[in-house]
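explain this:
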Amino acid sequence: MKLTLVTGLTGLVLLATIVELLRRRQLREKYGMLWLGLLFVVIPLSLFPRLLDGVADLLGVASGVSLVLFLGIVFLLLVCIHLSWEVSALEEETRTLAEEFALLRAEVEAERAERTQWAARHPDHTELVSRDG
C-alpha cells in the first residue's frame, strides 16, 4: 500500500513539474506531451496496481511488476534513441552553420581588403571607405 501511495504522489509531483516546465517554455511541447502521456498511464496504474496483472497474464509475463519494468526499459531506450537522433541532427546543423559563417566571414574580410586597397589608390575619396567600413 505504501508503494502505491509513493508512486501516485511521485506521479502527481512529476505531473506538476512537467506542466510548470511547459508553462515556462523550458520544455518543448513535443517532449512535454510524451511525458504527460506517460504520467497519465502511470498515475492510474499507481491507484489500481492489479490492472496490470491481467494484462501480464495475457502476455505470459510472470507479474504486472515485471511487465512495468520491461515496458519502462523499452520506453527509456526509445527516448535515448530519439534524443541521439536529435543530437545528430543538431550536430549536422551546427556544422553547416559554422561552414556558412566561415564563408561569410571570408567574403566580408575580402571586401574589407578590397576597400582598403581602393582607398590606398584613391586617397581623396577615403571618407567613402571609412563611412561604410
User: Anything to note?
Assistant: The chain has a mean pLDDT of 88. The helical segments are 2-23, 29-47, 51-59, 64-121, 126-132.
